[in-house]
Amino acid sequence: MAQNKLINLINEMEDVMDESSSVPFSRKVSVDPDEIYELLTEMKDALPEEIKQAQWVNDEKERIIGEAKNEAENRLSEAENEINNIKEQARNKFKQLVSEHEITRQARNEADRIISEANAEAEKIRQQSYAYVDRLFQGSVENFSQLAQQLEKNRIKILESK
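Structure tokens predicted for ATPase:
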């Protein structure tokens, strides 16, 4: 139904072009822009719903990916800040222990342990952030796959109904 209307509108636009006055010494024609814009608006309105849905799916995909990227960047930034805080605490603890002469050796061992724990915790946070982002993207891929399958079914129905 919408396809016939689109074809009729295209034919109507061809008629407008055929009936327009030509510009001397060129292949150009002079047309009424209001008439052309009106036809273009009608063409947009006559587009099948599936095309509009596909545009919405694409826009939604871009929005979700943008949100996922922002979330990932925020989580990574938070992880880096926490890493820096933990390292700073470890340095401060190390300096404190070193300043106490009688336990200098113990202080070095304790500082090494704290730094090692801080690095392990930082790696754990980093891995959790990557896992979270992976889950977000996997969910998006599954949603888009389902939407793409539905759009393909709709497209086939339209082609079969011709």
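The CA atoms of residues 22 and 28 lie 6 Å apart.
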